[in-house]
Amino acid sequence: MFIKKTNNELEIDWALTLIPLAIIIALFLLLMVFPESSANTIEFLRNIFVGQFGSFYMIFGLGVFLITLWLAFSKFGAVKLGNIEKPRFSTFAWGSMIFTSTMAADILYWSLIEWSYYFGASPFGMKNMSLAQKQDFSSSYSLFHWGPIPWSFYILPAVAYGYMFFVKKRKRQTLSEACRSTIGSKADGFLGKTIDIFSIVGLLAGTATTFSLATPLLSLIIARVFGIEQSISLSIGILLFIAIVYTTAVTIGIKGISKLANLCVLLFAALVCMFIFLGPTKYIIESSVTGLGKMVQDFFGMATWMDPLRISGENGSGFPQDWTIFYWAYWIAWFVATPFFIGKISEGRTIKQTILGGLTCGLLGTYTSFMVFGNFGLFQQVTGKIDAAAMVANGTNPSEVIVTIINQIPFSNFAMILLALAMIAFYASTFDAITLVVSEYSVKNLQNVEEPPKMLRVFWALIFIILPIALIFNESTLYMLQTFSIVAAFPLALIMGLIIYSFLKDISLDFKSLEKETQNIQNTPLILKEVVATESEKNID
Question: Model pTM?
Answer without folding.
Answer: 0.84
